[in-house]
Write a structure and sequence with these properties.
The protein has 949 residues and is α+β, with helices and mostly antiparallel strands. Helices cover 28% and strands 17% of the residues. The protein has 22 helices and 32 strands. The chain has a nine-stranded antiparallel β-sheet with strand order 1-7-8-9-10-17-14-13-12.
C-alpha cells in the first residue's frame, strides 16, 4: 500500500493553466466544459512525428532465417485462401505510424474508430481483425461565425491544416475548405474515456470553444459500455461586444476506412427523430461478404439550436453537390435547407464515387453569453462474421435489436443520456484523481491506457450461443475426419471415459482414433450468462484473440472494472483446457508438426479466423510445451476467485485447474517437484531461449502450486491441496538452490552466456501471489533484494531510469543482447515489475520504474506512443508492435495500491502446515476429490471427467 504523503510532490504535473489562459478556464468552468486538472495534453500545432520501427540485428537475422522463410511461406499460403496470417512482419501499412493518436470513440466490442489529438478520425476497426490506420479526411468538424453588422466573419475546419492527404488546393473536394486553424492557441486534453479540445480564440479571437468528446465506457455497466456511439458537446462562450451567429458543421464519409468509400452501392438517408434529434443515416455496403454497417451522424435541436442536414455530397466535380458547394453554402447561410429532411434515401453510389453527408447546428450567442451544441456519432453493424464462417450478434443488439437502423436510436440515446454517463465516469475516476499521494502522470496514464479495451480490436457478443447463421458444421466435420488425427493424451488419467449423452463430449473413441466433436467453447456455461462473451486482440499487429500469456498482465483492468467479463474469459479457457483439437499444425520455428490443441494444455489464444472453435492461431512454437501458460491459468483463476468470492465460478473451473496442474508434471524430469524448460523459448518471451530451471517459469510454478492448494482447500478438495503443498515445499527448496545467488535469481540454471542475467520479470509469480492475498513465495530479504537489483540495473542503468525496465541485464551492467527480446523494454512488464515493488513496500522505486514508460511513451519529450502503447521498444527508441494488450498491466499497480477487501480478508493458507503426504507424491496417483467437485459443475458433460465405468 502506498504510504501517506510519499508522492505529495507534483512530479510530471501538467496543469491546464500552462496550456490555456486562466480567464478561458474560468469562462468554461461549468457543465464539464473545462478540461480536468489531471489530463494528458498536447497543443494542436504539435508535429505528429513518424515513429521509428523495430529491426533485427544481423546476428538475430541469421538465427531467425529459417523461421523467416517458413513464416513467409505461411503468410503467402494464408493469403491464397483470402485470410491474413496472425503475425505478418512482411506487409507494411500504407500509412506510416505517427505520433498522432488520441482517445478512441465508442464503448467496447462493437468496432472502434480512434480520433487523433488534432481531430482526425483514424484507426478504423469496424470489421473484426481488420484495421486501417489512415485518417478519412472528409470526416471533420468545421465552424462558421458571423457577427452583427457583418464586419467579422470566420470559416474554418476545426483542425490544423498540416494534415497529410489533403491534396492540392483549387479542386472541388475538401482541399477547397478553409483549413485556417494554426492550432497555436488550441489544445487537446485526454482523460479516457473523455477528451477536450479547447480553441482559445481560434479562429475567432472573441469566441472560446470547448469540444468535449464522451464515450460510454462505464465500469460495471455491462449495457451502456457496449454501445458503439460517442458524443461531441460544444460549449461556445462569446467574449465580444456583438452577438455572434455560430454554425457548427459535422461532415462524414460513407466509409469504414481505407478505400472502402469507393466500393459503390452506399446509400445516405436523412432522418428527423424524437426529442429534436436529427441527422443522416449512412448505409455502407461492406466488401468481401462482410456484414453491412450503418453510421448515424446527428445533432440535437433545442430552443436555441437549429439543426439542418445535407444527406449527400461528393468530393469530385462529377458530384451533383460537391464539397466546395457545401462550404460555400455554409459560409453564405450557415445552414442547409429544411426541405432536405424530405428527400428520402439517396441513389446508391457508383464504384469509385465517394458519398458524404453533413449535419449543421446553428445558434446565436449573445455578448458574454454561452451556448451548448451537442452532436453524436453511432455505427451499427449488428452481425460479425469471422473468416471461417462463424457469425454472432454483437452485445449491444441485446438492447437495440439486430437492425442496422439501430444507429438512429443509438445517437438519440447518446444525446439524451451523455450527462448521466459523465456523472458515472466522474464517480469512478475522482477518488483516484483526488488522491494526493499519487503522481500526476500516473493518474492520467492509468486511465488513458484503458484506450486498448476499445481500440484493441475488441469483440463483445450477445450470448455464448451462435446465431442461426453459423458455420457449415457438416463440412467442417467431414474435413476433420479426413485428417490423420493422433491424439496426445494429457498425463491425467489412464481410465476410459464413461459414455455420455451430453453433446459437449470432447471425444468419442472409435477404432483407436479420436474424432473431434464440436468444441465445448460453443456452449453456454449456465443460464445466467448475462454479460455475453468477450474477445480482445493481443495487438493490432498480432491478430490473436485473448492471448493468454499476455492477458496474464492485462487482466487486472478487466477484473477491476468489468469482473463478469474477466470471469467469462477464464471460463472459456477452462473449457479449452479440457478439450483437444487433433488437426495437424506445422510449427514455424522448428519446422515440426503437431496437433493444434492438446488436452490439459492451456491454449495460447482463443483463435483468429474462428475464435472459440479453432484455438491456437499462434504457430511459431508448439505452445502445448510452453511452461508458463498453465501456471498463469491457475494463478489468474485463483486471483479472480479470491477477489470475487464467486463460489459457482470456482466450482465451474476447478476441474480444469486440477488438470492444468497435473499436465505440468511431465516437465518435472528429475523428480524435484520443479518444472524445467526445454532449451527453446517455451514461454511468453518467445525468442529468448531457456535452459533447465528458469526464474520466470519456475517462480510462476511455485505460485501456481500455492494458489492451487489454497483454492483446493476452499472447494473441499483437501487431498489435492496436500499434494500441492507437498510439491511446493520440495520445489521451493530446489528453486532457491539452483537459482538464488545471494542477490537475485539467475535467469536459468543452464550454462549459457546469459544464464546469470538479471531478468526484470523474474518475480512474476510473487506478483500474483501478493496480488491474490497469498503468503510470499520467498522471505522478504530475497524479494526486496531481487527487486532492488532489478531497479538498480534493469531500470536505472538504462538512460537513467527514463525508459522503463529492460528485460535482460548482465550483472556487469550491460544490456543482455542474447536476442531481440532480452534487449527490449516491455511496457507491460515494466508496469508489472512496478506493481510487484508496490506490494513489497518499495513504492518509491515502483513509481520511478513506471515513470520511465510515461517519459518514453507519453510525455512530450518521448517517442510519441500515446494511445498506441507498443509491446516493446529498444534503448534507442525503436518500437515493436503498436497498440498492444500488455500495457494494461498498469492496472496491476492500481490493484496493488488498493487491494480489494475480499483479497485482504481472503482465507489464509500456511504452506508450511504439517504435511500429510510425502513431498514425492505425484499428482496422477490420486484423484480423490475431483469427482465430488465435478458433480457440482453444471456446464460440463460427464465425459470430460474421468469416472469409473
Amino acid at each position: 500500500m502506498v504510504t501517506t504523503n510519499l508522492f505529495h510532490y507534483k512530479k510530471n504535473s501538467w496543469p491546464p493553466e500552462e496550456y490555456i489562459s486562466k480567464a478561458t478556464l474560468q469562462l468554461l468552468d461549468s457543465d464539464s466544459a473545462a478540461p480536468p486538472k489531471q489530463a494528458w495534453r498536447r497543443r494542436l500545432n504539435s508535429h505528429a512525428n513518424i515513429l521509428k520501427e523495430f529491426s533485427v540485428t544481423f546476428k538475430e537475422a541469421v538465427k531467425m532465417v529459417r523461421l523467416g522463410i517458413r513464416l513467409w511461406s505461411y503468410v503467402r499460403e494464408e493469403a491464397s485462401h483470402g485470410r491474413k496470417a496472425p503475425i505478418d512482419p512482411f506487409t507494411r501499412e500504407s500509412c506510416k505510424p505517427s505520433a498522432s493518436q488520441g482517445v478512441p470513440l465508442g464503448g467496447m466490442g462493437s468496432g472502434s474508430i480512434s480520433r487523433g489529438f488534432r481531430g482526425e478520425f483514424r484507426q478504423w476497426q469496424i470489421i473484426p481483425g481488420t484495421r486501417d490506420a489512415s485518417p478519412v479526411m472528409a470526416n471533420q468538424f468545421s465552424i462558421f461565425i458571423s457577427r452583427d453588422g457583418g464586419n467579422k466573419k470566420y470559416a474554418s475546419v476545426l483542425a490544423p491544416g498540416q494534415h497529410e492527404g489533403l491534396g492540392k488546393a483549387g479542386d472541388q473536394g475538401i482541399s477547397s475548405w478553409g483549413w485556417n486553424l494554426s492550432g497555436q492557441h488550441s489544445t487537446y486534453h485526454a482523460l479516457f474515456p473523455r477528451a477536450w479540445t479547447i480553441y482559445d480564440g481560434e479562429p475567432d479571437p472573441d469566441l472560446k470553444i470547448s469540444c468535449r468528446q464522451i464515450s460510454p465506457f462505464i465500469p460495471h455497466n455491462y449495457r451502456d459500455s457496449s454501445l458503439p456511439t460517442a458524443v461531441f458537446v460544444y460549449t461556445l462562450v462569446n467574449t465580444g461586444k456583438e452577438r455572434a451567429k455560430v454554425s457548427l458543421l459535422f461532415t462524414w464519409a460513407n466509409s469504414i476506412g481505407g478505400v472502402s468509400h469507393l466500393s459503390g452501392d452506399h446509400v445516405n438517408e436523412p432522418f428527423l427523430g424524437e426529442d429534436g434529434v436529427a441527422g443522416v443515416l449512412l448505409h455502407h455496403k461492406a466488401a468481401k461478404g462482410n456484414p453491412p454497417v450503418t453510421f448515424a451522424i446527428a445533432a440535437c435541436e433545442t430552443q436555441n439550436v437549429s439543426v439542418t442536414v445535407l444527406p449527400s455530397f461528393g468530393l469530385s466535380e462529377a458530384s451533383c453537390t460537391t464539397a466546395k458547394d457545401i462550404w460555400c453554402k455554409m459560409v453564405q447561410d450557415g445552414q442547409f435547407d429544411q426541405e432536405n429532411f424530405n428527400c428520402g434515401p439517396s441513389m446508391p453510389s457508383l464504384p469509385g464515387e465517394t458519398l458524404c453527408a453533413a449535419v449543421s447546428a446553428s445558434t446565436w450567442v449573445e455578448p458574454h453569453g454561452k451556448c451548448t451544441v451537442a452532436f453524436a456519432l453511432a455505427w451499427s453493424s449488428p452481425k460479425i462474421k469471422f473468416s471461417k464462417g462463424s457469425s454472432y450478434h454483437r452485445r449491444y443488439t441485446k438492447f437495440y435489436g439486430t437492425s442496422e437502423r439501430a444507429a438512429q436510436k443509438l445517437v438519440h440515446d447518446a444525446l439524451t443520456r451523455y450527462k448521466w454517463w459523465e456523472e458515472e465516469i466522474e464517480k469512478w475516476q475522482n477518488p483516484i484523481l483526488e488522491d494526493e499521494r499519487l503522481p500526476e502522470w500516473y493518474k492520467f496514464t492509468l486511465f488513458n491506457e484503458l484506450y486498448f479495451l476499445v481500440a484493441g480490436g475488441t469483440v463483445w457478443i450477445d450470448s455464448p450461443l451462435m446465431t442461426g447463421d453459423v458455420r457449415d458444421s457438416h463440412h467442417q466435420t467431414k474435413e476433420i475426419e479426413t485428417m490423420d488425427v493422433n491424439v496426445i493424451e494429457a498425463p491425467v488419467s489412464h481410465t476410459k471415459e464413461c459414455p455420455s449423452k451430453d453433446e459437449s463430449a470432447v471425444f468419442q473413441e472409435k477404432g483407436g482414433l479420436s474424432h473431434l466433436k464440436p468444441s465445448p467453447l460453443q456452449e453456454p456455461w449456465n443460464d445466467n450468462d448475462e454479460v455475453g462473451r468477450f474477445l480482445y486482440l493481443e495487438g493490432v499487429e498480432y491478430i490473436m484473440w485473448c492471448t493468454y500469456d499476455v492477458h496474464f498482465y492485462a487482466s487486472f483492468a478487466l477484473l477491476d472494472l468489468f469482473p463478469k467479463i474477466e470471469l467469462n474469459i477464464q471460463r472459456d479457457f477452462a473449457k479449452a483446457v479440457l478439450s483437444e483439437d487433433g488437426r495437424k499444425v506445422k510449427f514455424l520455428a522448428e519446422g515440426n508438426v503437431g496437433i493444434r490443441k492438446v488436452r490439459g494444455a492451456v491454449p495460447h489464444d482463443l483463435g483468429m479466423h474462428d475464435p472459440w472453435n479453432e484455438m491456437n492461431a499462434y504457430n511459431i512454437h508448439d505452445t502445448s510445451k510452453w511452461k508458463d501458460l498453465n501456471s498463469k491459468f491457475v494463478l489468474q483463476v485463483y486471483r479472480d476467485f479470491a477477489a470475487t468470492r464467486d463460489m459457482s465460478f470456482g466450482v465451474d473451473v476447478w476441474p480444469a485447474v486440477r488438470i492444468a496442474m497435473e499436465y505440468m508434471e511431465q516437465f518435472d524430469r528429475d523428480d524435484d517437484a520443479l518444472i524445467e524448460n526445454d532449451g527453446f523459448p517455451d514461454q511468453t518471451y518467445d525468442t529468448w531461449t531457456v535452459h533447465g530451471v528458469s526464474a520466470y517459469c519456475g517462480c510462476l510454478w511455485l505460485a501456481a502450486l500455492q494458489a492451487a492448494a489454497a483454492m483446493a482447500l476452499q472447494l473441499g478438495d483437501n487431498y489435492f491441496a496436500e499434494l500441492c503443498k507437498s510439491k511446493f515445499v520440495k520445489a521451493k527448496s530446489a528453486f532457491e538452490a539452483k537459482l538464488w545467488n545471494d542477490s537475485y535469481f539467475n535467469y536459468d540454471s543452464g550454462s549459457s552466456s546469459n544464464s546469470k542475467s538479471i531478468q526484470a520479470d523474474q518475480l512474476a509469480g510473487q506478483w500474483y501471489t501478493a496480488s491474490a492475498g497469498l503468503p510470499p513465495l520467498f522471505d522478504e530479504v530475497k524479494i526486496r533484494s531481487s527487486l532492488q537489483k532489478i531497479f538498480d540495473f534493469n531500470v536505472m542503468k538504462v538512460r537513467g531510469g527514463r525508459m522503463g525496465a529492460v528485460n535482460g541485464m548482465h550483472p556487469n551492467g550491460k544490456v543482455d543482447e542474447t536476442c531481440m527480446q532480452s534487449r527490449e523494454i516491455w511496457s507491460g512488464v515494466t508496469y508489472a515489475v512496478a506493481a510487484t515493488m508496490i506490494l513489497a513496500g518499495m513504492e518509491d522505486q515502483a513509481f520511478t520504474t513506471a515513470e520511465g514508460i510515461f517519459l518514453a511513451g507519453w510525455s512530450e519529450e518521448g517517442y510519441g506512443y500515446w494511445f498506441q502503447t507498443p509491446e516493446a521498444w529498444t534503448t534507442d527508441g525503436h518500437f515493436r508492435s503498436l497498440i498492444y494488450m500488455r500495457p494494461l498491466a498498469i492496472w496491476g499497480m492500481q490493484w496493488a495500491l488498493s487491494l480489494p477487501k475480499a483479497i485482504l480478508e481472503a482465507p489464509k493458507i500456511n504452506i508450511m502446515d504439517k504435511l500429510l503426504l510425502s513431498p514425492s507424491t505425484r499428482f496422477a496417483l490420486h484423484e480423490t476429490g475431483v469427482r465430488k467437485i465435478a458433480t457440482k459443475a453444471k456446464c460440463f458433460g460427464a465425459s470430460v471427467f474421468h469416472c469409473a465405468c
